[in-house]
């Protein structure tokens, strides 16, 4: 477990040591102009949605030390809330996204109440119950999916100020804008007083309480903010990437994917959410291409998925043993070594 000083160094790294302006210029200008629709649809859109979910979970688990296995449930709440708000109220898109985030925050706050009494494994089981309950409710009650016979619904079209956002480039820019704004917001939160309180609770809850940190309030704020951000990630996953909404798309496997992202990328570092999401998104595509080249597409997709899970599990064990701080720590060491060699 990193110390308070270590974690405070991680957050400013987002702006201090990364050429952020260059990355944003490439992301907002060069990629829409140069990237093919396949790259945007198959790689960048799922990457952005999962990276944002990783940012939300890292706020709760990495910075706050509150283990959660229900990320996909809050993604589902955000996606279905946005769908029903668009369908029944037909509100402007920014307001729809805001209300869907608030809905996810409310649900997260309800399931975060056990964190006031539970810790560690017991809290993880509590959030796992949220995962099963939300998926059951969305399947059981047809109102959420507008009584679709299959339970699978198409995401409604998106417009902003009269302009359609249904093209590949428009959906990418919408996702990139939301991810950028929310990530910078989380950075500001973790660098501020509430973020320091959250880190203090993670490092030693008893000591934090003694020095006057409002433990109960800070925990609930963390659950609400984390769930809201993950809810927006669910909106991006359904509306910009899949273009369909169904409870099965937000199952337990999706929750584990988000958890793997922050473990592999690095806990308590925003950069790690993006590194981990990149690995989670690119690795299956790379494995599929390699198997096609080596075996001519003769391997069943189910076998490929099993191999993917085995390799990811091995990577997680390797990171936990060799580098508990994940890809972000490895990248930092490489940059420092490169800087020393260039002096």
Automatic annotation (TrEMBL):
One of its GO terms (cellular component) is plasma membrane. Signal peptide: none annotated. It is a multi-pass membrane protein. InterPro entries: ABC_transp_permease, LivM-like. This is Branched-chain amino acid ABC transporter permease. It is found in: Cell membrane. The chain crosses the membrane at residues 20-36, 42-60, 67-85, 91-113, 120-138, 144-165, 172-190, 220-239, 259-286, 306-331. Its main location: membrane. Keywords: Cell membrane, Membrane, Transmembrane, Transmembrane helix. It comes from Cypionkella aquatica.
């Amino acid at each position: 477990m990193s110390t308070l000083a270590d974690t405070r160094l991680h957050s400013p790294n987002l702006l201090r040591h990364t050429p952020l302006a260059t990355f944003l210029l490439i992301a907002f200008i060069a990629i829409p102009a140069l990237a093919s629709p396949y790259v945007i649809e198959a790689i960048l859109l799922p990457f952005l949605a999962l990276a944002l979910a990783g940012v939300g979970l890292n706020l709760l688990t990495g910075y706050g030390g509150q283990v959660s296995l229900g990320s996909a449930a809050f993604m589902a709440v955000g996606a279905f809330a946005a769908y029903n708000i668009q369908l029944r109220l037909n509100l402007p898109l920014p307001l729809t996204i805001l209300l869907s985030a608030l809905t996810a925050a409310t649900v997260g706050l309800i399931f975060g109440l056990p964190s006031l009494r539970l810790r560690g494994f017991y809290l993880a089981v509590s959030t796992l119950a949220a995962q099963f309950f939300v998926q059951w409710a969305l399947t059981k009650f047809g109102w959420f999916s507008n009584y679709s016979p299959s339970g699978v619904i198409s995401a409604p079209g998106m417009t902003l100020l009269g302009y359609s956002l249904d093209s590949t480039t428009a959906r990418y820019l919408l996702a990139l804008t939301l991810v950028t704004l929310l990530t910078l917001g989380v950075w500001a939160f973790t660098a501020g007083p509430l973020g320091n309180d959250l880190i203090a609770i993670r490092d030693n809850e008893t000591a934090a309480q003694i020095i006057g940190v409002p433990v109960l309030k800070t925990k609930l704020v963390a659950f609400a903010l984390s769930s809201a951000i993950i809810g927006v990630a669910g909106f991006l996953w359904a509306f910009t990437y899949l273009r369909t909404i169904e409870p099965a798309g937000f199952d337990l496997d999706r929750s584990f994917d988000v958890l793997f992202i922050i473990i592999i990328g690095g806990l308590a570092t925003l950069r790690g959410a993006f590194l981990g999401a990149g690995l989670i998104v690119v690795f299956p595509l790379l494995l599929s291409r390699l198997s096609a080249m080596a075996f001519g597409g003769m391997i069943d997709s189910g076998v490929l998925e099993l191999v993917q899970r085995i390799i990811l599990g091995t990577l997680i064990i390797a990171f936990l043993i060799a580098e508990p701080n994940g890809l972000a720590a490895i990248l930092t060491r490489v940059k420092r070594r490169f800087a020393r060699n260039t002096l």
